[in-house]
Amino acid sequence: MATYIKITQVRSTIARPEKFQKILEGLGLRKTGKTSILKDTPEIRGMIRKVSHLVEIEPYEKEGE
């Protein structure tokens, strides 16, 4: 069974390096308040670690799995 995480952007990328904006786009986030549900992989965790001050994460149980 795959585990998932729910990622919500809680801070803006204004006045932040362009690198952070590209990481958030890679996570499927573009605006403050948007949420993305992704598989919990080491690659995703690494991306989250880089922008941890801009996002909130929580575990997510996908129905039917």
In one word, what is the shape?
A: elongated
Question: How many helical elements?
Answer: 2
Number of strands: 3
Q: How would you classify the helix and strand content by structural class?
A: alpha+beta
Binned, the helix content reads 25-40%
Order of helices and strands: EHEHE
The protein's oligomeric status is single chain
- N-C termini distance: 7 Å
Give the strand order, joined by hyphens, for the main sheet.
2-1-3
Sheet of most strands: 3 strands, antiparallel
Mean pLDDT rating: 94
Unreliable residue stretches: none
What is the C-alpha radius of gyration, as a whole number of Å? 12 Å
Approximate strand percentage: 25-35%
How would you portray this structure in words?
With 65 residues, the chain is of the alpha+beta class. The protein has a domain at 1-39. Helix content is 28%, strand content 26%. The protein contains 2 helices and 3 strands, in the order E-H-E-H-E. It has a 3-stranded antiparallel β-sheet with strand order 2-1-3, with no helix packed on it. The model has no long low-confidence stretch (mean pLDDT 94).
